């Protein structure tokens, strides 16, 4: 068996400074492009996901898009949510000392007017331009950890981009045949409710390739507070910054809800399903999904049977052990002071 393994892989296995080499990308090189779209001024899980992705040398980050929340959201009740999100992403880059060669863009501060009218902005234009590039063979993934405004609008403006990218979305409620909703669940599901019109565009109209991580799956990404203290907080400026975000939130919400000793980093599967794909026959091989006919999303934000729906991936189980251990290891290797 050993003789069939590429020599470079044997070198990686035997090299004592593997961590340092992967950290500066001298041996691990990009094999995919990603555009990251998230509500960075909202739940801090988006910034944990972004830090993890930025430390992953197998992905080439092409752009970061700050997206909006639902109007009046408690995380950010302003009217400049997308602009604030872009500012938070830039703040993280500064903390990490990363001089980016990609744009950080503010998306729309508002949802789509309806499921057929796209918003127009620089972020939408960038998605279209990147999808239509002909000078690279690296596959493109658009990673959405919140609403779907920009990718929906990009498809409405240029439907032919569908064959050029894969959308990975953290959002949507449970499928009744796959899982039960949690106690006291919200309806519509949080991320779907950010822009229901955009969700209807993506599910009901588009032919985009979708990998969906619905609520029952993203709730598996549970970080215990003990690991935040032991594995994240001691890791230089980046670890301190991320830990402080979460601890400040815990203090802020304690008068209203006791969240116990865990926090769901529900956006981190965006890294698991891209950067941590298997080496050969590349795919998120340690996580489980089912192929489902895309449902129709109705006016109430619920799924309806849709016989004309295309097939989409719906993830049911996530390899959170791989995901978190990789995050902890990369933070420790990076550990900027």
Automatic annotation (TrEMBL):
Pfam families: IU_nuc_hydro (PF01156). It comes from the Bacteria. Signal peptide: none annotated. Residues 34-250 form the Inosine/uridine-preferring nucleoside hydrolase domain. One of its GO terms (molecular function) is hydrolase activity, hydrolyzing N-glycosyl compounds. This is Inosine/uridine-preferring nucleoside hydrolase domain-containing protein.
């Amino acid at each position: 068996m050993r003789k069939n393994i590429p020599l470079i892989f044997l070198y990686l296995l035997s090299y004592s400074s593997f961590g340092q080499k992967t950290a500066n990308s001298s041996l691990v090189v990009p094999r995919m492009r990603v555009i990251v779209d998230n509500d960075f001024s909202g739940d801090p899980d988006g910034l944990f996901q972004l830090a993890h992705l930025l430390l992953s040398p197998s992905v080439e980050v092409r752009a970061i898009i700050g997206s909006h929340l639902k109007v009046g959201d408690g995380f950010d009740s302003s009217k400049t949510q997308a602009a604030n999100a872009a500012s938070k992403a830039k703040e993280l880059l500064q903390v990490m000392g990363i001089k980016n060669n990609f744009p950080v863009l503010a998306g729309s501060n508002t949802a789509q007017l309806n499921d057929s009218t796209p918003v127009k902005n620089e972020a939408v234009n960038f998605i279209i331009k990147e999808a239509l590039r002909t000078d690279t063979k690296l596959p493109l993934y658009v990673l959405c950890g919140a609403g779907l405004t920009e990718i929906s609008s990009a498809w409405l403006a240029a439907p032919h981009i569908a064959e050029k990218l894969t959308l990975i979305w953290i959002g949507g409620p449970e499928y009744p045949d796959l899982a039960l909703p949690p106690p006291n669940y919200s309806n519509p599901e949080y991320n779907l409710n950010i822009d229901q019109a955009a969700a209807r565009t993506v599910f009901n109209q588009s032919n985009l390739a979708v990998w969906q991580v619905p609520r029952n799956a993203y709730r598996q990404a549970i970080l215990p507070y003990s690991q935040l203290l032991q594995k994240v907080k001691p890791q230089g400026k980046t670890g301190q910054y991320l830990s402080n975000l979460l601890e400040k939130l815990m203090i802020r919400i304690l008068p209203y809800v006791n969240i116990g000793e865990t926090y769901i980093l529900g956006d981190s599967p965006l890294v698991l399903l891209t950067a941590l794909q298997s080496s050969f026959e590349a795919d998120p091989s340690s996580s489980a999904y089912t192929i489902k006919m895309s449902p129709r999303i109705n006016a109430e934000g619920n799924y309806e049977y849709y016989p004309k729906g295309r097939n989409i991936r719906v993830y049911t189980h996530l390899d959170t052990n791989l995901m978190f251990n990789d995050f902890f290891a990369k933070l420790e290797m990076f550990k900027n002071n």
